[in-house]
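Problem 3 from the worked examples.
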Amino acid sequence: MSVDTTDPDPRPSGWHALQIVALPRDTNQHGLIHGGWLAGHMDMAGNLACCRESKGRVATVAIESINFLSPILVGQTVGCFTRILAIGRSSIRVEVDAWVRSLETEAPWVKVAEGLFVFVAIDDNGRTRAIQRSA
C-alpha cells in the first residue's frame, strides 16, 4: 500500500530573492515563456542568495539540475525562492524554486521549476576566495 505524500497546500519557502513579471518579449514561438529566460532568473536569484551568504561576489560554477514543472504565461509574476543547502571553504550549493501567480487575482503561488546551483566566492580579481564564517 502506498502513502500519498503530496502536499495538499504547497507554498513557497526560503528567501524570496527575486520577483519579476513575464512579458511578451520573453516568449517562444508558442507564446510561452522561454526556459532559458527562467533559468537565467533562477541563476540570478541563486547569485543574490550566495552573495548575501558569502558577504561578497560569487560566480556560478555549476547548474546541477533544473526541472521545469509547468509553463509560464505572459503576465504572470515569477518569484524565485532560495535555500542554502551547503557551504564549503569557497563554494555554496543552493536550491532555487520558481513559483508563479497572478497578482491581479491574488491567486496562490504555483511551483513551475526547481533547480540546484553551485557558486564559488570570488575576490575583486575574479579569483576564488574563502568564505568568512561568523564565530
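Problem 4, a separate protein:
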Amino acid sequence: MTKVVLIYGTGSGNTERVAIGIIEGIEAAGAEAILKKYDGEFVDLSDADAVLVGSPTYNTKPMPFINHIFDGKQGDQFDGKVGAAFGSFGRDGKAVQIITEKMKEHSMDVIDPGMAVFTRPNGEKLEMCRKFGESIVGKIKGL
C-alpha cells in the first residue's frame, strides 16, 4: 500500500487542521497516511513513498524545527521521495516556500507549489486540502 508520512509543527492548531484535511484526501485516494507532530525525535521514513512537511509561518519563517529535520541522519531519508510542503499563515505563506526549497535541495520529487492556507482552514479551504492530498497519491502512482 502507498504510504505518506506527514511531519508537522503547529502553534494555534491551524497547520494541524491543514494536515488532517490532506490526510482525508490521501486516504480517500486509497493510500495510508501517518501524521507525526515533530518532537525532535528521529522519524523513520524508510518505507514512506512520500513525505509532507508542514509548518505555520512566523515572521516570514517556518518553525525552528524545520532547520533540524532536514539535517543529518533524519535529512538523509528525504532523497528521491515525493515531497510537498504545507502550512498555515496570517500574513504570508513563506514557510511553505522555504520548506519546498529545502526539499529540492534533498533531491525530492517536489509538488510545487505546496499547500499554504490563510488563517483557520474550514469549509472550502479544507476541501482544497483534501484535493491536495489526492494529488499527492496521484503523483506517487504516476497519474
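Solution to problem 4. The radius of gyration is 13 Å. Residues 3-141 form a domain with the Rossmann fold fold (CATH 3.40.50.360).
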